[in-house]
Design brief:
It contains 8 helices and 18 strands. By secondary structure, the protein is α+β, with helices and mostly antiparallel strands. It has 2 domains: 163 residues, Aminotransferase class 4, branched-chain amino acid transferase, N-terminal domain (D-amino Acid Aminotransferase, Chain A, domain 1), CATH 3.30.470; 170 residues, D-amino Acid Aminotransferase, Chain A, domain 2, CATH 3.20.10.10. The longest helix has 16 residues. It binds pyridoxal-5'-phosphate.
Length: 362
């Protein structure tokens, strides 16, 4: 059975040390005392599943992941609720995306049961690290890579699947809108490539554009499609939404999943949540020219990005070779912040879970 995990409790930090970390977690600075580990080989399939002490891994310099990049990951969060339970958000969507990423990179696909059991057992043993309140949560990072040793270019015959976790606070300051640089020099993903997969190489290839955005005084990069360099796809590590119109008339538009965007769990949830809140929400295409003219004539009143790490992040300024254009008054918009609160309230147990999206871990 895939979920037969051997639990090997290890001595970790003291309760006082953990309380200090949890009170002021930062983002991804400190990891919990344990990690979940599973091995896969063509001979044995999944085997040696364990929860063990968080510790450095030892590997051979010829480990295949280092050379040919078979490496994928996920990102999800656990929230401590006022009733004392610890819950996560739509974990099967992460499990399914992990399977699709694995398939695209010719890696073995962990079952939903294995994925969820590894996450759940890790959170259970390290539950003291789950912060409570506001924007705080335990960030959970499942990841898998080719651990076989060799230099042949082919799918590896051995893999390691691990889950680690880190208590986190807010990723961005939600009260501040981010500025974004529209990259026309670099692209993130092309049709037939790996844009839909959450694989390490996509992020490596994005860093140069992110550095360029910083040089231009921007916080993040916006990606256009690879063929026409015209259609807006997504932002850095987040999906994008545009608020068309304002007040009661406002509608939401998010770029369609064309195969080159990462299908975000938050994106999917906001499409449903927007409609539930009476804000008609559409998937479609929007070009950079249309965005510029709609910002100029006020047809688009707000822009925001969404993802697990930052939840919802308002966009206040868009820059590119064309110059720069402010979004609304440059500050977080009303609909953006309404959606942010609705999603966070749901995730932290302050609002009813009408779609049965929350999953109790502890
Ligand atoms: C490239 C990219 N787009 C979008 C997202 C948002 O996805 P999710 O809402 O599942 O976190 C992420 C983060 O995982 C990402 O890395």
């Amino acid at each position: 059975m895939s979920s037969q995990i051997t639990i090997k409790p290890a001595a970790g930090r003291s309760a006082v040390e953990i309380a200090e970390i949890v009170a002021n977690p930062g983002f991804g600075r400190v990891f919990t005392d344990h990690m979940a580990v599973a091995k896969w080989s063509t001979e044995k399939g999944w085997h040696d599943l364990s929860i063990e002490k968080y510790a450095p891994l030892q590997f051979d310099p010829a480990m295949l992941a280092l050379h040919y990049g078979q490496s994928i990951f996920e990102g999800m969060k656990a929230y401590r609720w006022n009733d004392g339970t610890i819950n996560t958000f739509r974990p099967l969507m992460n499990a399914n995306r992990f399977q699709r990423s694995a398939k695209r990179l010719a890696m073995p696909e962990p079952s939903q049961d294995l994925f969820l059991s590894m996450v759940q057992e890790l959170v259970k043993i390290d539950q003291a690290y789950v912060p409570s309140g506001g924007d705080k949560s335990l960030y959970i990072r499942p990841f898998m890579f080719a651990s076989e040793v060799g230099l042949g270019v082919r799918p590896a015959t051995e893999y390691l699947f691990l889950v680690i976790a880190s208590p986190v606070g807010a990723y961005f300051d939600p009260a501040k809108a981010v500025s974004v640089w529209v990259s026309t020099e670099f692209v993130r993903a092309a049709p037939g490539g790996t844009g839909e997969a959450k694989c390490a190489g996509n992020y490596a290839a994005s860093l140069i554009a992110q550095a360029q955005a910083k040089e231009q005084g921007c916080d993040q990069v916006i990606w256009l499609d690879a063929i026409e360099r015209k259609w807006i796809e997504e932002m850095g590590g987040m999906n994008l939404f545009f608020v068309m119109g304002s007040g009661d008339e406002a509608q939401l538009l998010t770029p369609s999943l064309t195969g080159t965007l990462l299908p975000g769990v938050t994106r999917d949830s906001l499409i449903k949540l927007g409609n539930d809140l009476g804000i008609e929400t559409h998937e479609g295409k929007i070009s950079i020219d249309e965005l510029r003219s709609s910002l100029a004539n006020g047809k688009i009143s707000e822009v925001f990005a969404c993802g697990t790490a930052a939840v919802i992040s308002p966009v206040g300024m868009i820059k590119g070779e064309f110059g720069e254009i402010q979004v609304g008054n440059g500050l977080p918009g009303e609909i953006t912040m309404r959606l942010r609160k609705a999603l966070l309230d749901l995730q932290t147990g302050l609002a009813p879970d009408e779609n049965s999206w929350m999953y109790r871990l502890v």
